[in-house]
């Protein structure tokens, strides 16, 4: 059974200049929703990887939504890009690209990606306690 959000808030972003504000927004919302400092840092890394991919590989930016259910903090990154492929292995140490999605998968408790009108929503879930 799906849980309804307890709290939800959203911030848009259009380009790399907006990403510091996105990270500050996510940090403040995650802390206010009870995520530990250590888990907030992991969430910020994951959000930064996804939003950086958006500004590098899509047009039009996106938005980030942060909410919580009874067990998890959820951060949805919505943009106009295609659904990313998760489940890849980590690239070799000498690779210059391709680590972002693998990092996101490893640091979040659950990652899912679904098509939405005009793009994709990647949902990051981290246990609140």
Automatic annotation (TrEMBL):
Keyword Transferase: yes
Pfam families: HATPase_c_2
Keyword terms, alphabetized: Kinase, Serine/threonine-protein kinase, Transferase
Organism encoding this protein: Virgisporangium aliadipatigenens
All copies of domain Histidine kinase/HSP90-like ATPase, residue ranges: 14-125
Entries under InterPro entries matching the protein: Anti-sigma-factor_SerPK, HATPase_C_sf, HATPase_dom
Protein name: Histidine kinase/HSP90-like ATPase domain-containing protein
Single GO MF descriptor: protein serine/threonine kinase activity
Upper lineage: Bacteria, Bacillati, Actinomycetota, Actinomycetes, Micromonosporales
